[in-house]
Amino acid sequence: MPRLVMKFGGTSVANLDRIKRVAKRVGVEVAKGYEVIVVVSAMSGKTNELVGWVNETSALYDAREYDAVVSSGENVTAGLLALVLQENGIEARSWQGWQVPVKTSSAHSAARIEEIPTDNFDAKFSAGMQVAVVAGFQGISPEGRITTLGRGGSDTTAVAFAAAHSAERCDIYTDVDGVYTTDPRVTRKARKLDAIAFEEMLELASLGAKVLQTRSVELAMRYKVRLRVLSSFEEMSDNAGTLVCDEEDIMESNVVAGVAFSRDEAKMTLVSVADRPGVSAAIFGPLADAGVNVDMIVQNIAEDGRTDMTFSLPVDQVARAEKAMAEAKDSGDINFHDLIADTEVSKVSVVGIGMRSHAGVAAKMFEALSAEGVNIKVITTSEIKISVLIDRKYMELAVQALHDAFELETA
Amino acid sequence: MPRLVMKFGGTSVANLDRIKRVAKRVGVEVAKGYEVIVVVSAMSGKTNELVGWVNETSALYDAREYDAVVSSGENVTAGLLALVLQENGIEARSWQGWQVPVKTSSAHSAARIEEIPTDNFDAKFSAGMQVAVVAGFQGISPEGRITTLGRGGSDTTAVAFAAAHSAERCDIYTDVDGVYTTDPRVTRKARKLDAIAFEEMLELASLGAKVLQTRSVELAMRYKVRLRVLSSFEEMSDNAGTLVCDEEDIMESNVVAGVAFSRDEAKMTLVSVADRPGVSAAIFGPLADAGVNVDMIVQNIAEDGRTDMTFSLPVDQVARAEKAMAEAKDSGDINFHDLIADTEVSKVSVVGIGMRSHAGVAAKMFEALSAEGVNIKVITTSEIKISVLIDRKYMELAVQALHDAFELETA
């Protein structure tokens, strides 16, 4: 029988009434003939409570104990869902990570799944089990200690099970009903996508469309797991949500899939840096050490052996970056005339695998922004994405203009 | 190095401040040179919350899933205490039941501990571990499922670890400071006992002095584990609390150790029962089936082939008992003229291993009650206990009189 993985996040299992709704959805898939593996998160708020207690014990806590404590929330949900499924007449049982076992690395609180043997479930499904309820987010290290995969790790658990069991699909139930062409709060013309390619999803996710954990999408891409994102609060239907899949599985798509943005960016420019081999390392090394997440980087053509270096970063890291640069200058590691920070910028990006085969996307983007009088401060491009930094006050205007220009309202 | 087991109940670990107090107490024992095994319960209220959720899922829930859910509370406390101990500079780690492993029977939610291998801890203690924090109340079945030992099972976990590790002592920290000669609310003359024999403790515990789980005392008696009951809310001292130990370890003791009582008892009499072989089974079989906990049983001498059968039971089970007896009469299984229930009685008992070697304890007891005008309705005796049923209104008076008569105020 085909296998299906269903994953339910914290708000979907926040209390017993919601767990009962989840059980009904699972029952529908069982009735269709699937062998179902359900991956659950902790009831919403529970993990935060546990993390809060751990943080109270010590600033430098033992990550192994953190994992032992924090993983308990998922165990509760898994047991309760199994009980409700049984009450509905479905053969179900719960599995904690160590029982499967979900074998992970020893990198506690950020462990990577290394292997999920399938013989355990195979035998139980053959013996009549209809649903395996798995506590997400957790595994067991080679030393026999409990590990966790990091926040949002239940998505990764779900995809890993889908890959190991060659599941027909991995349905991620969440509190949004799919992936949109852009944030509907910025333009009401935003449209839910029926399908999106893994690569596009990765670019959109890392740009702030927080629907799926980036790691889970990477894993799905590697193992070609068909992911579906859908809402646990809407009626079920076969074409609900958004399918995240291999680009070959998308019959026809727009050149641009969506417009992403990041509101609170800053732009820093080191004016007149001595241009010598190793200068980039001298600049970005200290920034990385200071925990600054540099995003876009642009270097001007050098004149008279000096150049300007511009980069973007989250606006709340500007002070840290300025301190790191001042120290690097004082210690003589780098030399620059001035440091200019612009804290009133936003990043807007268009993303689409269609760009690979269609020329003129950049030109069309710049034209649309120009027509609205939006000045572009920095540009970076990748194979399937073009990003610009603009003044923050134009951000909504820019997103709306690009959404119109690439006709994202219509499929 | 000598090993010590310390067990902390739910109120002792109710929040992080209390867990920090617990860590200090553990630190004191570590400083004395003990290798310490700490057994913890769930933070108070947590287990009830989990049990409540399970009860909401189904009336006839799967006990395996109940155990998976309900055991999670202890895991949280164990991890948190290990973290606080580490913060105090102590080498500590937490262990869940399956990690030790605490091998139990498959009787989910009422499992019995079958084996606790010690090699795991032995190796870790040798490698520098100072404290093993064990999640109480749980184990693992031969099938690899999580089991629990039933409510209060953490006491049993602690004693089982003490037995397996030949611990010097097993200290049970609770919210009372020891075992008393009787309930201090009944007489202010009640005195805390420095030591009490296992057999006495068993009689006192089952009579309602709810300090220790009966099973844990039985286990301690079988393996000669020296138990100490003491309060986690008082200052530490070497002779705090009450030592529960083998009678040989008690140097000198009173003939009577304490006066126990059970307030809400009832007395039922089947009048003029046909006295034939098997009549007791015909009466008490249906009562057991109806869930009635019969305690004292007295049968009069038969006259003309008929007898009166009197027994005591908790007052809230009288209706059930009457129904069961009426049905048994209707079906012809037993035959009696009348059924009389007296719901206004209490049981008072004197308990002491000294009775074995001292005659006249019963006489002294009856004399003391008689001097106060207390009429005795039923008497039963065992080797170390004499119990009487009396009118409830005299209960406090009887306890006080017996406490005085046996001079329990003075050691």
From TrEMBL, chains A, B:
Keyword Metal-binding: no
PROSITE patterns: ACT, ASPARTOKINASE
InterPro entries linked: AceGlu_kinase-like_sf, ACT-like_dom_sf, ACT_Aspartokinase, ACT_dom, AKii-LysC-BS, Asp/Glu/Uridylate_kinase, Asp_kin_monofn, Asp_kinase
Top-level enzyme category: transferase
Keywords on record: Amino-acid biosynthesis, ATP-binding, Kinase, Lysine biosynthesis, Nucleotide-binding, Transferase
EC number(s) on file: 2.7.2.4
Presence of keyword Transferase: yes
UniProt pathway annotation: Amino-acid biosynthesis; L-threonine biosynthesis; L-threonine from L-aspartate: step 1/5; Amino-acid biosynthesis; L-methionine biosynthesis via de novo pathway; L-homoserine from L-aspartate: step 1/3; Amino-acid biosynthesis; L-lysine biosynthesis via DAP pathway; (S)-tetrahydrodipicolinate from L-aspartate: step 1/4
Residue ranges of every copy of the ACT domain listed in the record: 268-350
Database matches in Pfam families: AA_kinase, ACT, ACT_9
Catalysed reaction equations from the record: L-aspartate + ATP = 4-phospho-L-aspartate + ADP
Protein family: Belongs to the aspartokinase family.
PANTHER family: ASPARTATE KINASE, ASPARTOKINASE
Protein name, as recorded: Aspartokinase
Protein's organism: Jannaschia pagri
